[in-house]
Amino acid sequence: MASKLNTAKKTTADIFAILCPLIYFASYLTRKDYSIVMAAITETEHITKSVAGIPESLALISYGAGQIISGILGDKIKPHKMISIGLTATAIFNTAMALVSDPTARAVIWFLNGFAQSMLWPPMVRILAAVMDEKRYNNVCVNVNVAGISGTIFLYLTSSLIWIRFFTWKYTFFASAVLCFVILTMWLIGCKKAFPDGDPFDKKKAKAADTDEKKLPKLTFGVIMSSGFLLIALAIIFQGALRDGITDWVPTFISETFALKSSNAILKSVLLPILGVISLKVVGAINNKLVHEETKGAGWIFAVGLACCAALVFCYTSNQYITLTVSALAVGTMHGVNFFLVCIVPARFEKYGMVSTMSGIINSLTYVGSAAAIYIFGAVSEFFGWNAVVITWAITAVLGTLCCFLAAKPWRKFIRS
Description:
Oligomer: single chain
């Protein structure tokens, strides 16, 4: 009997090891498409960069705030149902983006899309934590993040080589919506196969677990203050600002600096997510073999990102390929920092029974930085030029590096306790 149960659990884990990366692939398709075609929008719609950045900033705000709500709900309701609702909504909103032309309407739709997207990550973390052991959880987290970045690569290639070049940027949203509906269908079918004996997240079946949850220790404000989590939170904000701020503005950055067409700039910017994938794989391997404390690991990777941003200050006008490569390396390091702080840190709160909740809170911090960076970097470039933007990137990297190393000692005490 035990053998059959173990086999069933392994089958469930195997199914979600495939489905969850697909979900994140669909998430990035339907969330990053606006930022990727933003250079084409400013070029064809004749609007300023700050106006073009408003929908993206609003989406990041709603996504960040929604992460907290979804994180709490993800610990209380069926997580796979939440994911189904989120995928359906985001596919609908992407279709709507292709049909409207008013900037205000686009801003409202993309704000709503941000909240729909927030319904995917926290419940996914709950599912993975429930059906997998720690080692497989970490490995699948790497694959999930790689799948998300792969979605970005797919968008860069299809947008620049097909939709913008031969049609219009609006077809990017249509294509993303269609693929999202396909993956949603696969998710619904896969969930039925993963739970052949009934839904394990059903509240009636979980009543026995409620008694055990009452025995869990309380996560108090004092515990959080003494753990160094506030410094980690700041590091996560700075990481989000650099990762998404650089990624979203690089196509416009190199287009204006080197007088490139938007489609050409978008195509060349595919180097950013490609190096992001490589970075995640390298960091995942390093974590399994060498790193046993996430804040210190994040600090050293942040320091490499700082070196890249500092190099950009002196070389960003020299050559478009050098600029792209160094920018891509900076973004790649931030994906590595994201793995340590956003994927590993939430698991440390398992003893408090708050993995999904803390995952939502932590992930929301990333997009606090992202939302601020998208708008601020665009505004800084308009008023002071791209040189000032690059200097701002370097300062942000300095602050993030310091926060990680300052948090290392108290966080080490927290996880050992």
